[in-house]
Amino acid sequence: MNSLTVALVQHPCDGSREKNIAASLAGIRKGAALGAKLVVLPELHTGHYFPQNEETAHFDLAEPIPGPSTELFSAVARECGVVLVTSLFERRAAGLYHNSSVVFEKDGGVAGVYRKMHIPDDPAFYEKFYFTPGDLGFNPIQTSVGRLGVLVCWDQWFPEAARLMALAGAELLIYPTAIGWDPRDDVDEQERQLDAWVTVQRGHAVANALPVIAVNRVGLEADPAEIGPGIRFWGNSFVAGCQGEFLAQAGREREELLLVELDLRRGEAVRRVWPFLRDRRIDAYGDLLRRYRE
Amino acid sequence: MNSLTVALVQHPCDGSREKNIAASLAGIRKGAALGAKLVVLPELHTGHYFPQNEETAHFDLAEPIPGPSTELFSAVARECGVVLVTSLFERRAAGLYHNSSVVFEKDGGVAGVYRKMHIPDDPAFYEKFYFTPGDLGFNPIQTSVGRLGVLVCWDQWFPEAARLMALAGAELLIYPTAIGWDPRDDVDEQERQLDAWVTVQRGHAVANALPVIAVNRVGLEADPAEIGPGIRFWGNSFVAGCQGEFLAQAGREREELLLVELDLRRGEAVRRVWPFLRDRRIDAYGDLLRRYRE
Questions:
Q1: Which of B204, B206, B276 to mutate: most A Cβ within 10 Å?
Q2: What is the mean pLDDT of chain B?
Q3: Is A1 a residue whose pLDDT tops 90?
Q4: What is the spatial distance between Cα B11 and Cα A207, in angstroms, rounded to a whole number?
Q5: Other C-beta atoms within 10 Å of A17: how many?
Q6: Which of A100, A78, A197, A109 is nearest to A150 (CA)?
Q7: Is A246 on the interface with B (CB under 8 A)?
Q8: With contact defined as beta carbons under 8 Å apart, do B173 and B165 qualify?
Q9: Three-class secondary structure of residue A37 per DSSP
Q10: Per-position DSSP letters for B188-240, written without gaps between them
Q11: Which of chain A's termini has less CB crowding within 10 Å, N or C?
């Protein structure tokens, strides 16, 4: 298999669960009809972005694996014959919840689960209240279309996560995402934030000679507590090649389906020219395991 | 000290040692006259880029620390009252050489030495023949203008190096560089390489909320063995701010002096919004010390 067609389903998630699921299903089916063999959805795509406030009732939104969402997305993966990267609020036990990605094989089976390892917490993104940090580590998920380095959102700011996936043989880095602007920030700050988000992930592509697929929500979602101005999710879902080059990028306003054909041979060619894995100074990296080097 | 003016001296290094030194000195003096308190030179700025072939006679170019180059640049740092980041081919002992950066205080004293930790080796960049990998680790150099995270060229592709500097309290990341195109590559490949080089370093700025200063040589330098087509050093010296935003960028053709005023308070403000250091999963990063995770 020398090439792989990927579909990125960027959509708003501000409606009812039914409406959000309909948007996801429509994107999956359209992507598959256009030839995609791998489809990626945004972070927590079945619901409103609830971590804008801390509210115990929101834990009712969590569901087990397997559960209603996995049953539904398993069926559509099988129906369409695609490998499917989904995201959900996982209820593992009473008082123990995760922000998880479930990857389905094209026959509908669960290829693997990733539990978000890095959990953010800043105004309007109160995720530490809801999500226990993942305990499955940074391990790619083997599928029929390759070894997928699935990470989630906040993980995308950490070069360590991308590197650990690359060292474990990941062939793609994939980030379901929910990121957007505080509408109160000025335009310059908003543009710096968006560009930083794109740039740090393109940097992971370069440092590891791996394609990067980032799929974001889009559109304004109100603060459920009606205190803050909400979050304007900035879209801009994109695919970068093994040298960080843009292969496709969505806009910032609306639902979009991006279809990209990846050349799976490119990574090895790039690594022969820029053999970073050969030259890592693992003898001198010990302090990466420290919080700080006072 | 809330701001710092930095000068980047991008110049060709294809002339005689005297001519190259004259170009470095002119840039340092001009930068200082314009208000710079920190001046950065390209990698191995006193000579032709000799590692284009493997030739034992080239070891004659190496010099000790202290030695003729450090004496000269110490004097100009004192004369101009600037902190100065230089680069040289260090002779440590017979058969033991390094690619080193010497940083001078504004009084001419040696503030510190960094020995390039990651050594490249690919066609026309046969550095592994000449340079023993550094054994001083990734430690910032304390100066009167701040803690400088000085790294050299190939180091710039490794997020680990930038992170270790950040964890040790570096306030700036600084990369004296010698990178360019193989004139035989097509234009698309050349542009991807240049953009990858810029992007991965802007990514370090984002991941660590630190300004990045990269200073490159510029211009064509012939292969001393007259076999290959030489290297066209691509200039494009630049400064990125703490969110990876461009603060200044030189062209690809000629000698340039870039002067940039850095806001030293910005980094802490950015880290309060995006507190990546808080959330690193040091409990799960152990495999970063492995070559590969089979």
A1: B206
A2: 97
A3: no
A4: 27
A5: 14
A6: A100
A7: no
A8: yes
A9: coil
A10: HHHHHHHHHHHHHHHHHHHHHT--EEEEE-EEEE--TTSSS--EEEE---EEE
A11: C
What is the Cα–Cα distance from A125 to B273, expressed in whole angstroms? 11
Contacts of B286 in chain A (CB under 8 A): 289
Q: Which of B138, B200, B273 sits opposite A203 (nearest CB)?
A: B200
Q: Does A138 touch chain B (CB under 8 A)?
A: yes
- B15 band by pLDDT with thresholds 50, 70 and 90: confident
The ipTM, to two decimals, is 0.97
B276 with A158: Cβ contact below 8 A: yes
Is some CB atom of chain B closer than 8 A to the CB atom of A119? Answer: yes
In a 10 Å sphere around its CB, with 0-12 CB exposed, 13-18 middle and 19+ buried, how is residue B184 labelled? exposed
pLDDT for the residue B1: 79
Class of domain B3-280: alpha beta
Select from B245, B276, B284 the Cβ nearest to the Cβ of A192: B245
Kindly state the tokens that stand for B3.
Answer: 């701001």
| pLDDT digit string, tens, across residues B41-74 | 999 999 999 999 999 999 999 999 999 999 999 9
The CA–CA distances, whole Å, from B48 to B17, B18, B52, B125, B179 equal 8, 12, 10, 13, 13
Indicate the angle between helix axes A187-208 and B187-208, nearest 10 degrees: 120
Would you tell me which residues 140-169 of chain B have a C-beta closer than 8 angstroms to some C-beta of chain A? 154, 157-161, 163-164, 167-169
Chain A residues in contact with B161 (beta carbon < 8 A):
281
**In chain A, domain spans:** 3-280
Longest dimension (CA), chain B: 56
Judged on CB neighbours under 10 Å (0-12, 13-18, 19+), A92 is: middle
Whether B199 sits inside 8 A of A204 (CB atoms) is: no
Whether residue A245 and residue B195 make contact (CB cut-off 8 A), yes or no, is yes
pLDDT in tens, A224-269: 889 999 999 999 999 999 999 999 999 999 999 999 999 999 999 9
pLDDT at B29: 98
Contact A199 B203 (CB under 8 A): yes
Q: pTM value? A: 0.98
Cβ(B54)–Cβ(B129) below 8 Å: yes
In angstroms, the Cα distances linking B148 to A68, B38, B105 are 53, 10, 12
Q: Residues A19-30: pLDDT tens digits?
A: 999 999 999 999
**A4, A38 contact by CB (below 8 A):** yes
- Tokens describing residue A266: 């490119």
Interface probe for B, chosen from A191, A210, A247, A289 (most Cβ of B below 10 Å), is A289
Whether A133 sits inside 8 A of B293 (CB atoms) is no
Q: Hey, which residues of A are catalytic here? A: 43, 116, 153
Q: Find chain A residues with C-beta within 8 A of B290's C-beta.
A: 167, 282
- Long-range interactions of B93-101: CB distance < 8 A, separation 24+: B96/B132, B97/B59, B97/B62, B97/B130, B97/B131, B97/B132, B98/B131, B98/B132, B98/B134, B99/B43, B99/B44, B99/B127, B99/B130, B99/B131, B99/B134, B99/B152, B99/B153, B100/B65, B100/B134, B100/B152, B101/B150, B101/B152, B101/B176
